[in-house]
Amino acid sequence: MAANETHQVALIGLGTIGIAMAALHLRDPTSTIHIFDVRADIEQFIFAHLPGFLEPVSRGTSVASLISSGRIKIHTALETACSLATIVQEQGPENIAFKKPLWAQIEKVAPPTAHFWSSTSGIPASEQTAAMQNKSRLLVVHPFNPPHIMPLLEIVPSSSTSSSEVEFACRYFRQVSPRHCPVVIKKEVSGFVGNRLAFAVLREACYLVEQGVVSVKDLDQIMMSSLGPRWALGGVFESYHAGGGEDGFRGFLNKLEATVQEVWDDLGLISMTNDNQRWREYVTAQVEETYGQSSLGQTNGKKAKLREVLRIQSSTP
């Protein structure tokens, strides 16, 4: 993205991820955000929720002023939202039956030079482009919730995606928000990388709770009191590399080989799709009993703490 380049960003779908992405794109003071969502109360939704996603220094800027100045434009048709777009980013349902025809439609109404991004958590670009004429324009930009705070953006091209599209996406986010960290995933794989790691931990967490080894509350406490802080500062490999002393990661594996292998051999298999769903209801009930009903507003109190963790992380040599 050139220093004097401005963008018309069309956001398709404005749920929890979409509204946070709107706040992220608004950090570029020259951009215009075009919003299209089928919900009838989209304007009220923006007025109610967008202020809480804006950067602290920008919260004095009202949604009304962003709309009146033309920084935000709300559209009632996909065609008008995309007609001037330099970037089209969709945050629709995690459903290939929705995404595949949507991108074919967007391709017809957006300028031929527009960049196409999907915020999917797991549907690869190669599947989404099946009905498109030019498959080289689309890639996945997978944010982590809340994306206006969490630095990671997984940039996941298909084998057909142009390398220039990958380079542009990385350059764009580094300039719009220097603290964000776009990482290119080299191959399409189910769940990409972040979710594969997270869901592997989730699978084992559900197994341990269902087997009565630990409660939901205590498992979360174990994560927050050990692995969470450690991995926030060093990641998986760097942390275990340090744990191996002078011999590094090799030394770690040598010292704990027997224990590591025993755990790997003992890892419980737990299925989301088999007929025995007792574990699912058991774990879900314990989570709901422990933490109560979840809501969008409930997460706001965590944002300041999350920002502080990231501040400490970035200041640690």
UniProtKB/TrEMBL annotation:
It holds the Pfam family 3HCDH. Belongs to the 3-hydroxyacyl-CoA dehydrogenase family. Residues 8-186 form the 3-hydroxyacyl-CoA dehydrogenase NAD binding domain. Gene3D superfamilies: N-(1-d-carboxylethyl)-l-norvaline Dehydrogenase, domain 2, NAD(P)-binding Rossmann-like Domain. This is L-gulonate 3-dehydrogenase. Its EC number is 1.1.1.45. It is found in: Cytoplasm. Residues 191-257 form the 3-hydroxyacyl-CoA dehydrogenase C-terminal domain. The record marks 142 as: Important for catalytic activity. SUPFAM superfamilies: 6-phosphogluconate dehydrogenase C-terminal domain-like (SSF48179), NAD(P)-binding Rossmann-fold domains (SSF51735).
